[in-house]
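Teaching note: in complex prediction, the entire set of molecules is handled at once rather than each chain in isolation. The prompt given to students was simply: 'Predict the structure of this complex.' The entities are:
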Amino acid sequence: MDQFLQQVVNGLSLGSIYALLALGYTMVYGIIKLINFAHGEIYMVGAYVGYTAIQNWGLGLIPALFIAMTFCAVLGVLIERVAYRPLRNATRIAALITAIGVSFLLQYVMILFMGPDVRTFPETVPAKIFKFGGVQVNEQQIYIFVISIILMFLLQFIVKKTKMGKAMRAVSVDSDAAKLMGINVDTTISFTFALGSALAGAAGVLVGVYYNSINPLMGAAPGLKAFVAAVFGGIGLIPGAMLGGLSIGVTEIMVSGYASSLIKDAVVYAILILVLLIKPSGLLGKNKKEKV
Amino acid sequence: MKKLVVTMMAATLLLAGCSGGKSKDSAETIKIGVNLEQSGPVSSYGNAELEGVQLAVEEINEKGGVLGKKLELVELDNKSDTTEVASVATKLASKEKVSAIIGPATSGNVKAAIPATNQAKVPLIAPSGTDDSVTMDNNDKVQPYVFRVCFQDSFQGEIMAAYAENDLGAKKAAILSDSSSDYAKGLTAAFKDSFTGDIVSEENYQSKDTDFSAVLTKMKSKGMDVLFIPGYYEEAGLIVKQAREAGIEVPILGADGFDSPELVKLAGKSALNKVYFPAHFSSLSEEKQVQDFLTNYKKKFDKEPNAFSALAYDSVYLLVDAIERADSADSEKITEALEATEDYQGLTGKMTIDKDHNAVKTATIVELKEGEQTVVAE
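The expected output is the structure of the full assembly:
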């Protein structure tokens, strides 16, 4: 039983990271129906910015987190402005291919500047261990979990309660109608990218702190898994992304814990295929009939 | 036009043929080819070895060279890529007409270089290719022109199993290995063959994984006396850190892939207690040869050498020893002399080349205490 609870704790801390990433995917998809494949790379950039802030400028975790989030927000807006906006009326496949291109661009620019080697993240949070019965919880795991939850609530608040959130929801339902109502669609989309990318940046720093190792290609695999998480929870839905992220994290850990760690990725992708076959709108999604 | 091209090609061929006319013995220098990973993913090994080679050659030339001739290095970058490795090997053996080749660093790359060196009948000395199959072909016959100066993976696995049983008194061992690398597979097989106690748990990970919490939690519940991690420092560092955090306090055994300052950074000093691994070379040795190497290396490159530099340095001296015994710079004669190497004393220990072209030598077992190395057994 202790072992099971311990695996749940492991799964939740991994899942919070997927959830933070999945939120960004879902928001962007919700608003312009684009799968932003460069999202995993923004997370990687966030990790490097956090690394620089802590290692070279000697800052603590919270300031580093803010700097990384700000930097990634600006980067996200920039990418949208340069790469996606000119293609807004192009086919969706063109935008998707561009997103993949941006993702490679970010990876290799980072290799150019920082080299391909693994870097070790400086220790900012002491790895203190708390014991609850037979279950061990690491202080860093608590940080990751708590920060993820706070950011998710903040996001939910922005989307549901603020004027900008209202504009986002309007654009997501019908961007033409929103424009007619006097909403600045471009600003709203930029804002969405800023928000999603800031969350990815936060996830990058948290991963750096937790695993202590970052590299320029670190974004690819978690990016894909977060995408699976977003689809699993219902793409376009914020609570869906949270639920999806946590479930994928726990699933992955349970598969390695009770079956074999070699098939954990296969199981995650099998879930993607099953969801797409059985309930394409995801766990929390409602089946909408398309009007013709 | 066509005629012109044909004539030119014929002329080039003729020229190329001519330049090969001069024998290696009558040349003014002895050429040594260096086929190392100067860029690409494993460039940290390649560059460390290149420095070891350069230092050795500089020392030898200062003392007047070999057989009255200076050594001349032909350094080409194989970009850590097997296709490049093969083309560099061909270029060195056939075009540059080197007497012998040093490198590449990794086992996979050495294997890629072998067809070219075999064809040209030029000896290749692998400083750090530890995979058992490096010196053997597919039919388990020895590769005639390939030698190594490092110990093999099966030997590492055996001594770690013996150390676990005899010195640490372990009866139950667990293994966590990289499912995708030949290195890990070879080590795991050797460890399992020699360990007479129980293997209570055997798990795998994939290279580039960062989260090992699930398997470690699972392994912890099995109860073990030692944990064996045959892997490279990139993942091993994270595994050691996460194992200690998960409350696994048993001794951890590794392989020569642990020998990197990066391991200490990844795992953190406090996690690196009761961690043992076999090392090719220890800078703690008090032998004059080792101490001189350390001083000269620091003077030339302004940093501490690692095991790879030491192995490459040994490769050059072993080669020079063979050239002197052969009394010739001819590749075939050097190969014969290399085969006859016995009790050659290098930085990385005393070695004898056996019939399979492996270096029979001793290993040093290093223990980490708060991340610091101490030698516990030879």
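Point out the following to students. Residues 43-62 of chain B form the longest helix (20 residues). The longest strand of chain B covers residues 29-36.
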